[in-house]
UniProtKB/TrEMBL annotation:
One Pfam family in the UniProt entry: DUF2231
Family: Belongs to the bacterial ring-hydroxylating dioxygenase ferredoxin component family.
Matches recorded under InterPro entries: DUF2231_TM, Rieske_2Fe-2S, Rieske_2Fe-2S_sf
Superkingdom assignment: Bacteria
Cofactor(s) it depends on: [2Fe-2S] cluster
Official protein name in the record: (2Fe-2S)-binding protein
SUPFAM superfamilies xrefs: ISP domain
PANTHER family hit by this protein: FERREDOXIN-RELATED, RIESKE DOMAIN-CONTAINING PROTEIN
Length: 283
């Protein structure tokens, strides 16, 4: 299975389907606040993984009830609820998928295809159950659960091996040693301009507003874009840095994500001014 997924990652022929679909998703899912909501920006982490628990839990519950006598009505109800709730989860997943790198989109396309077949099986199961053909309904449910499990495995590969929608910057915290680290004189940092420094070979950005200084990991949580090359903008009265790669936007006074495609906050380090020297440490 791992070898198959590796071939999928490298199969550029999937781009013939993926690229037009990506453009269509980006054209349909507007405005920006809709995309932000689907990315999970208000939560500070991706929304799609949380939403899929509803259909998956409903379908597993229906499978258990199908094995018990006298539970046809309850199993039908859970089948219907899982099938309906799969649709908004799919929309959130498509929104995340459209902002991924090409190799991630190829695997995500197969993940989506498997889940589409699973939803179709459950739709057929629901129709069969409502028409009284509970044997066929149970069989289609079991087929749907098996296919959804394959889709879940592919989704796990996408998240845990390829790092899709996982914070790409947080691992750099493990490279920073304990204690306070000097970053230069406060007087040498210009007002309201981004500058880049290093702590233990980890790149960070500094941003000064008056005598307050923000120190944030430079790598964008979304796809490791260089925030030090980003633009500073005012968003809702807050100074924010905009990633130059995909436009993810983070507050410079706390790191909170304001606009996606990142669903995760930027990582800010605690700072202090000591004898005119800026120092930062691990959270």
């Amino acid at each position: 299975m791992r070898a198959l997924l590796t071939r999928i990652e490298q199969n550029t022929r999937l781009d013939r389907v993926g690229d037009p679909l990506q453009r269509a998703v980006q054209a349909i899912l507007r405005p920006q606040r809709v995309r932000d909501l689907l990315h999970g920006v208000p939560l500070g982490h991706p929304l799609h993984p949380a939403m899929v628990q509803v259909p998956v839990g409903s379908w597993i519950g229906a499978a258990v009830l199908d094995l018990m006598p006298g539970q046809r009505r309850a199993a039908t109800t859970l089948t219907a609820f899982g099938t309906v709730s799969a649709l908004p989860a799919a929309v959130a997943g498509l929104n995340d998928w459209a902002a991924l790198a090409p190799d991630q989109r190829r695997v995500g396309l197969v993940h989506a295809a498997a889940n589409t077949v699973a939803v179709a099986c459950y739709g057929g199961s629901l129709a069969a159950r409502l028409s009284g053909r509970h044997g066929i309904g149970r069989a289609l449910s079991m087929a749907g659960l098996g296919i959804a499990s394959i889709g879940a495995y592919i989704g796990g590969h996408l998240a845990y091996k390829q790092g899709a929608q996982v914070s790409q910057s947080i691992s750099e915290l493990h490279l920073i040693s304990q204690g306070w680290h000097p970053l230069g004189d406060l007087s040498s940092v210009p007002q309201r301009q981004l500058i880049t420094k290093e702590i233990d070979d980890v790149s960070v950005i500094l941003y000064r507003h008056g005598d307050d200084v923000t120190v944030m990991l430079e790598r964008c949580p979304h796809q490791s874009g260089p925030l030090g090359q980003g633009e500073v903008q005012q968003v809702d009265g807050h100074d924010c840095v905009v990633c130059p790669w995909h436009g993810s936007t983070f507050r410079l006074n706390g790191g909170e994500v304001v606009h996606g495609p990142s669903g995760s906050d930027g990582q800010v380090l605690p700072t202090r001014i000591r004898n005119g020297m800026i120092e930062a440490r691990l959270p």
